[in-house]
Design a protein that fits this description.
This protein is of the alpha/beta class and 342 residues long. It is built from ten helices and 17 strands. α3 links the parallel β3 and β4.
Length: 342
């Protein structure tokens, strides 16, 4: 017979299917087990739609078995009315006698109230099974609500001899393999937003979309202090919304949003605005200056660095970073190093 860890790991596995589609909600999966067999499962598929527990309960063909089953879910069921009714009420309504939860939901509208409501209804609630894995799945959600800022991913590619771009670059330059490019676009599809500085926008003229994979384009963010960027660059096309951080004006157009900020303590002020916009995650794909500014402020959670076989011999030096736990993976001719800021 499978144990509780097995079924909660299954919850996490199916919860991941919602990445890129459920923000600002967390990724949640749920399975319902009767006599050691899964009789129902579901995950939160899209923001505004049914939550995982509701989908799992609705998938059970013989509803009479619910009163003799255990519901597993990687995150505490909600107890408040949002886009949908409380999941804890739905569980109580169907008389499910036992609920096993991966971790608590620290969002202020929940924060233990779902557990309390179910226990008060006589449900046997067990919590904290594979807690670390459950929290890691929703690191963006927890960072946003606990630190009041988005989860920050730094990403760049560098040459074998430590340069991020050629000297006096005048046109777009790509160092990594096509497989690494596809992976980078997949990452974009998983996050709420992507940020670059003005110089990167000018020299690379990036679209910052997910054209190499299927998925939603992230919100594009650009730092353009004096609004010097040409309106004809790709960042201002209609493929996705663009937010322009500047010192001159706040204004909305059909696709773009201008946000005026104080450039003293720039990084913190950007993060305050992203929190206001309910943006839970951001990939920084700017040049060395933009990336290094986040590193120097120690305001980042994860870095993803591709090192290629190309040698430039001269150019713009890569950012300098130190962190905690790291891992390395070979992607075709590129070496991908991921560093966590523990």
């Amino acid at each position: 017979m499978q144990n509780e860890e097995f079924f909660l790991n299954k919850c996490i596995e199916i919860a991941r299917l919602g990445i890129g589609n459920v923000s600002p909600n967390p990724m949640v999966g749920s399975v319902i087990v009767y006599k050691g067999e899964v009789i129902g499962e579901g995950y939160h598929e899209k923001y505004g739609s049914h939550h995982a527990e509701v989908n799992a309960i609705n998938s059970v063909e013989d509803k009479s078995l619910l009163s003799k089953s255990t519901l597993y879910v990687n995150l505490e069921p909600c107890s408040h009315f949002g886009k949908t009714p409380p999941c804890s009420d739905f569980i109580i309504k169907h008389k499910i006698p036992k609920v096993v939860i991966g971790c608590m939901d620290t969002y202020s509208e929940v924060d233990g109230t779902g557990i309390k409501k179910m226990r008060n209804a006589g449900i046997d609630v067990k919590i904290g099974i594979i807690e670390k894995e459950s929290k890691d799945l929703n690191k963006r959600f927890f960072t946003f609500h606990e630190k009041k800022r988005p989860y920050i991913i730094l990403k760049w590619a560098e040459s074998k001899d430590g340069f991020i771009a050629p000297k006096n670059q005048t046109e777009p330059f790509w160092m990594t393999s096509s497989k690494s490019k596809i992976l980078a676009h997949k990452w974009r599809s998983e996050e709420d937003s992507i940020l670059v500085g003005r110089i990167t926008a000018e020299k690379d003229n990036p679209s910052l979309t997910v054209r190499e994979v299927s998925g939603e384009n992230p919100i594009r963010l650009v730092i353009d202090k004096d609004l010097k960027l040409s309106k004809n660059i790709n960042l201002f096309n209609s493929e996705s919304e663009t937010i322009i951080f500047n010192k001159i004006k706040s204004d909305n157009t059909s696709e773009n949003k201008y946000i005026k900020i104080n450039f003293k303590n720039l990084i913190n002020n950007i993060l305050i605005e992203l929190y206001k916009q309910k943006i839970q995650s951001v990939i920084i794909e700017g040049g060395t200056k933009t990336l290094q500014s986040f590193i120097d402020e120690n305001t980042w959670d994860e870095s993803r660095i591709f090192t290629t076989n190309i040698k430039l011999k001269n150019g713009v030096k890569s950012p300098s970073i130190k962190g905690g736990k790291s891992s390395k993976t070979q992607i075709n001719t590129d070496l991908l190093k991921i560093i966590l800021n523990d």
